[in-house]
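Cast an eye over this sequence plus tokens and explain the fold to me:
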Amino acid sequence: MNRILVALIFVIFAIPVFSQDNSVEFGLFGLINRNLNFNYERKLTDYASANMGFGYLLPGAPPHVNTVLDILTDADTEGYVEDALRNMKFSAVSFTPELRYYFEKSGCKGLYFGGYAKYANYCYTSQYTSDVNYSNSSGQSQTKKDVVFTLSGKFHTLGAGLSLGYKWIIEEKFVVDWCIAAPGLIYGFSKANVVAPEFPPEESITDFVKNELDVIPDFLGKINVSEVSKIEAQGVWKKIYPTCRFNLSIGYLF
């Protein structure tokens, strides 16, 4: 994955430069979700430019977590997944190389059409407690109260798409860049481990996790769970899904 990213950066910024026009921009819409977005644009010709975007998602709750919690509540889960999401700390870095074509011979301003790729790496952790029902060696039903679960994992995405936008240059120093729409497709891959040192040995932690995850709606994707040990399970999730991003950025031309 890292080799692909390096190759994309090299392809864009190893292109000979025909002009010294550059701009740096800061995205405004990402602030809604604690996402700091920066973009560097280099003019290649009067019609074309190369861009590199960088994003950093500040640690905190997962974006759109309330929407996901509403969906899971409707699915009648027993609450373990919801507790994990409520206590989750989520952060990410992303890179978005892009090539743009401007319809006017005006030096990287006006209406543009582009193609982009995007790679993102998300890290997340969570800790929560849950009661665990099990049968002891005599077949009697027991409940172990407040078992502590620790969840940690990574989520990688790689995608590509097209963009449409409009860029203004103000007093030959400042820029306003409106990305009207940038639809695309993303391949997402996530692997996470959940550990519970006090989990009852008579019960399978893998089955415990599977039973909760099986009721998650199919459109969110299937999580395959396997056993690592008696106190640890691992989940793997893969999915291709559509996306559409948009942004309004302000910056400086130099």
Residues 13 and 40 are 11 Å apart (CA to CA).
